Amino acid sequence: MEAPLILAAIAGLLVVVSLIQPLAARLGLAPSVLLAVVGVGIGILAAQLLFTTRTDAFNEIASVFVYLPVDSQTILYVFLPLLLFQTTLTLDVRRMAEDAGVVFVLAVVAVLIATAVIGLALFPFAGVSLIACLLLGAIVATTDPVAVVAIFRDIGAPARLGRLVEGESLLNDAAAIAIFVVLLGQLTGTEERGSLMAVYSFLESFAGGILLGYVGGQVMVRLFAPVREFRLALVTLSVALPYLVYIIAEQLAGVSGVIAVVVAGMVINLSGPSRITPDGWNYLLDIWEQIAFWASSLIFVIAAISVPRLMVDMTWYDLALVGVVVVAALAARAAVLFGFLPLLNFMRVNQSVSTPYKTVILWGGMRGAVTLTLALGVTEHDMIAPDIKSFVAVCATGFVLFTLLVYGTTLKPLIRLLKLDKLSPIDAALRNQVLALALEDVREGVTDTAGAYQLSPAVAAHVATPYHLRAETAAQANALAEGIQDRDRITLGLVALANRERELILRHFRERTASVRTVQTLIAQTGRLADRARAGGRFEYNRAARQILGFPLSFRIAQNLQRWFKQERWLAGLLADRYETLLLSRIVLDELIRFIPQKMSPLLGDRVGEILAEILNQRRDGTELALKAVRLQYPDYADKLEQRFLRKAALRLEENAYRSLLQQNLIGAELHSDLQKAVSESRTDADRRPRLDLGLRTETLVSQLPLFADLPGDRIKAIAHLMRPRFAVPGEMLIRKGERGDAAYFISSGAVEVRTGDMRVTLGRGDVFGEIALLKGTLRTADVIALGYCHLLVLSTHDFMQLLQKDEHIRDHIDAVVQARLDMNDPARHQTGSAPSAGQTAPKEQVEDKQVPPPAALRR
User: Fold this and answer.
1) Do strands 790-796 and 724-728 pair parallel, antiparallel, or not at all (unpaired)?
2) What is 698-859's CATH number?
3) Is the pLDDT of residue 343 over 80?
4) In 3D, which of 560, 557, 528, 521 has the Cα closest to residue 543?
């Protein structure tokens, strides 16, 4: 078959699928349904032209469609990775995670049950082996991502319903293909594993696909960094990813390529926006939308063209078998939706799914190109008997046509019948409020435009009045204030603010005032805020906000590395990341607080606006405190980072000024290029973040202590050799009451609080704590908590005692400290009323224990 004919056939199909779009819109049908009908028609027409005895003029082009130059494996390898990857890119992965239990049941459990039910239902009537019946069950058990996603998006299904069926259609391909491979091997005699081994193989394929997809996605995310300024290279990398992941998974690793591609797409979905500029990300999505349109249309048409060939031997009895498949598939799906899902809901494994949603999911199980391709693969297999080939081809093809022509054309009326196309009360009220505000803005804009262009006021009023009337109608219809509780409006507002926060962060990324790492961290945080707000409203949002200000596990690990191995580079980097993240977060929170009275209060009401402002102000205050804690310890470094932020903002303003001059034709392209080159060089320097020095050199810390300040250099070195520097963060528990003392602590910088009973003692630079438990050999009798970032010098019990024996000056100082604390804890002083009352802060000399040995004990 000549290449020009094949190219001409593909080009002709592209023309057909392009014209189908407006035709489907005019007829009110989903394009996928019309593509299937047209594909079948092309297949029938090509067969008529090829085998007619009237003329041979069309034989060459007709043979291309009758004897397709691609087999089933080629169709899967060429088209399926693209379709899966693009669908995953556009999913709201975080929202879909809320229904992970439902998606898993629909994608895996439902496929297993459907395979078994369909196979057992067919076995008494089909006249073929049970394995062949189960093979057909696996082929038709998978809903098709091309058909399902396209149809549900075309009919405007509710967001959650769309997420459920999209998640199902993406993942159940993997389950069905894995079962198909096992059953095909048993049918042909190439696979003789038992049931347990088959289950193990299935689980291994799933788990391996997840791991491979995650690794592939992470590798690709890191490859985005050097090419994020080059959009064409970026798109090229993204096209390579699904093919590489799919082929490596299927051919080398022996795991599920479908799962690998889906997981890789999810990684790109979650990490891509913070790794690529917003403009580059939108460009990437636009290109992928075009790629997916070509791929989905071609795979559907090509698969549909093969339908006449697959059904050429169909009989009335075969039609009855198709009916058995339809009934069995519906029964299996109903059993999962109305039997298994309520059980999961009872066990609180997932959110409940309403009966109307279940009904639509039941009726929306369209099959399509994947099922046809698997059936085509069976007909191409040399080791399968002809009667089984015919059985699989006819039943699978008939079932696909039934689901598309019946389910696909009646799904939209069913959604209308169940009133799932109606907005919820809060969404309807919000729509009216948005409409009223927007139309009033339009009216004002029309009036201002007429004045600016000196148009007649009567003309302006004629155009503006309808907008004013529509705005009044929307305002009158709005029942937001009366019908919706404040709690729901607050939740709605918090989710909206989290989404707005994400947009502001990406704007800073677009303007290059924030680094990739900072943006990635903040994007993940806003995602958690939105998720928690949806799940638990104000309470969960505040809880998530407090957790954001805490220190993650990586910070604790870095602290331990510094503490035990004196490796401080990672810790310094994390602390620098923290300050940069907190700085941008505070800037964005200030913008959000100003956003509330401008947009949120008019939309949700003044009372809700005030509550939202209070919540954000609390977040802002907490962020500011965390910033001040770092600034107090490292003021010079904080200044450098803030100067760096302003420098980046200045470079962005400079770049915009040059671009504006070019657009106004005030400078030429050559001069603009020269100016832009200078800006780029300056930006490269500004992007280089200064390195943070934690200041944990032991000798320096020792010399900063007033106790050791007058000692000679060799003595300071000797003492420094005994001590171990430790970096503490705000809120860190340094000593816990009831623990056995193993070290004393000298404060080189920062402050700690000693908590003993109802009293609070603040210790600062130059103070020592933890020594009394060492001298007495008893348990700690107080908690000691860092109030800010602290530089501490830690001395073990043995070294502490050795230091006291060798240095009389230090021993005398410790004697004085202990005596002062004995005086403060003297019961006689409590009786005279000089001790602090409950809840007061005691002087810093009062610490751990009342029963301190006399100073002379230090000398023994």
Assistant:
1) antiparallel
2) 2.60.120.10
3) no
4) 528
